[in-house]
Design goal:
InterPro entries: His_Pase_clade-2, His_PPase_superfam. With 380 residues, the chain is of the alpha+beta class. Helix content is 36%, strand content 8%. The protein contains 14 helices and six strands.
Length: 380
């Protein structure tokens, strides 16, 4: 009877997983894909809106004639969706109060959506949320882990996870620690066959085995060249300041102030620096499309390259002609620049092509201005 009960529990948990394909995709504002690095992962992979666990093993493309098998996987994964940071929470609160108290006294602003913002928009973010992972962010990493386990069953197997042959490194940032925990939960759920987001742990809490390594994961904090030359350098972001106070932003500021019924001088450039946060308000009230820069045709768009849960995967294969390496960006194959003839070139060719980077970048010399003797870089 106990075995039957366990089987029924697992079967019941699988039903929601099987029904994902029939779910309708909700209406999403067309500006959702233009939130830069704060864009959700589904804007890059829209099919995940219907089935967040759908994986595609065909992305692995070693030469079929060489009978290759993946033997090692290195993944660099960004944290999942998070709350705004403290400075933006304060900006949201300030803008909310500004609209509530001053928009009604300004000219214009009779539209129903503006009345709703004035009367019903609740600035519900609290300061303790400061950049922390939201539940959607945990799901981002759990689901990614499940998909990768489906694509790499021999590497991310239950045995390898249980025997801790899979190594996890994270920085001490709470959103990163929460993300690596969620990723491990996803692997453990996958190994148990509990693939639904609705499942619960039956008898025990998930086991975590990650290491916190800020020296590696936040190396820039210890790089004096970066701290002094960029982070604490007022001239380093001069072009950003020019843009914030330039003609394009001034036009956006004027149009937004007019739509909100605010005096122009009250809507400062500083209050316009968090457009990604506004549509997430609990009231589901989003500002209408005020202005979008002309992004069509741009090749470098951070919203498509590094959304939440962005990932960079290096897959090493054992092949007849020798080891081969394949690159995946956000679960899609990308060919190495300079080696575009193959999806998975020979490992020795990759090292030869990028030797000037692998062996030519001295961290201590770049960061501290001093050379330190070291062996050749063998991390790749």
């Amino acid at each position: 009877p106990g075995g039957v009960q366990s089987f029924q529990s697992v079967l019941g948990l699988l039903v929601p997983r099987l029904s994902f394909a029939s779910l309708s995709v909700p209406d999403i504002p067309h500006i959702a894909g233009y939130f830069g690095t704060k864009t959700r992962y589904e804007e890059v992979k829209p099919h995940l809106l219907r089935d967040p666990l759908s994986a595609d093993p065909s992305v692995l493309r070693p030469p079929p004639a060489e009978h290759c098998s993946p033997v090692h996987l290195t993944a660099v994964i960004r944290h999942g969706s998070r709350y705004p940071t403290l400075k933006n929470i304060r900006r949201i609160r300030k803008l909310s109060e500004l609209v509530r108290t001053e928009a009604s006294r300004a000219s214009g602003g009779s539209e129903s959506w503006l009345q709703e913002i004035r009367n019903r928009w609740e600035a519900w973010y609290t300061e303790d949320m400061d950049g922390q992972l939201v539940m959607k962010g945990r799901d981002d990493l759990r689901q990614l882990a499940s998909r990768l386990a489906s694509v790499f069953p021999s590497l991310l197997s239950e045995e390898n996870v249980r025997k801790r042959r899979v190594r996890f490194l994270t920085s001490s940032k709470h959103r990163c620690v929460s993300s690596v925990e969620a990723f491990q939960e996803g692997l453990q759920r996958e190994s148990l066959g509990l693939t639904s987001d609705l499942c619960v742990w039956a008898d025990a809490e998930p086991e975590y085995s990650h290491e916190v390594d800020d020296e590696l994961m936040r190396f820039f904090d210890r790089c004096r060249g970066y701290v002094d030359g960029v982070e604490n350098n007022r001239t380093a972001l001069l072009e950003v300041e020019k843009f914030k106070h330039g003609e394009e932003m001034e036009g956006v500021r004027r149009r937004m102030a007019d739509r909100l019924g605010l005096p122009h001088h009250r809507l400062t450039p500083g209050l316009l620096s968090f457009p990604n946060s506004v549509p997430k308000q609990r009231s589901q009230t989003a500002f209408p499309n005020i202005s979008l820069w002309r992004l069509a045709g741009r090749r470098f768009r951070t919203s498509l390259i590094v959304p939440y849960a962005a990932n960079l995967l290096f897959v090493l294969y054992d092949c007849q002609r020798g080891p081969r390496l394949q690159l995946l960006v956000n679960e899609s194959p990308v060919r190495f620049p300079g080696l575009e003839a193959e999806d998975a070139p020979l490992y020795r060719d990759v090292r030869a092509t990028y030797r000037h980077l692998l062996d030519g970048c001295d961290f201590h010399r770049e960061c501290e201005g001093r050379a330190v003797g070291r062996a050749p870089n063998t991390e790749l």
